[in-house]
Design a protein that fits this description.
alpha+beta; OB fold (Dihydrolipoamide Acetyltransferase, E2P); 2 helices; five-stranded antiparallel beta sheet
């Protein structure tokens, strides 16, 4: 006799598919939360100069955009202005950083006039990044 319904019992194939789906969801969440920090770290590796800068201002920003289908996307970030000095020239930079857990914790310790580590491109010092 052929079995027509399997809705009451789990078989190994269903357990495998559920595990695969759960793993895929965890991977997507990890990517969403860890990618912005990883991307900043990769960009910072390209800069070969190190110096100390001073925070001038920290502003929380919110950008709302709409897709072609009418879905709204809200992006939260911080706009940080800082200055640093290289070879008797002062650079004032405004950098937009993502709102991640690591950056939130770092910003809790910072305020105006805080000293921060800055990595910069030695040939173009205006290309720089705060290191948290």
């Amino acid at each position: 006799m052929k079995k027509t319904s399997n809705w009451l019992f789990w078989d190994w194939g269903s357990i495998f598919r559920a595990g695969l789906l759960f793993s895929a969801l965890l991977l997507i969440l990890a990517f969403a939360f860890l990618f912005p920090d990883w991307n900043r770290d990769q960009q910072a590796k390209e800069y070969n100069g190190n110096t100390t800068g001073t925070i001038l201002s920290i502003e929380s920003t919110e950008q709302i955009s709409m897709t072609e289908t009418g879905n709204k996307t809200v992006t939260y970030s911080y706009n940080i202005r800082y200055s640093f000095r290289i070879k008797s020239k002062t650079y004032v930079i405004s950098e937009q950083v993502p709102n991640t857990i690591r950056i939130q914790k770092a910003l809790e310790r910072l305020d105006k006039q805080s000293k921060v580590r800055v990595k910069y491109n030695q040939t173009k010092p205006e290309h720089s990044q705060i290191i948290f």
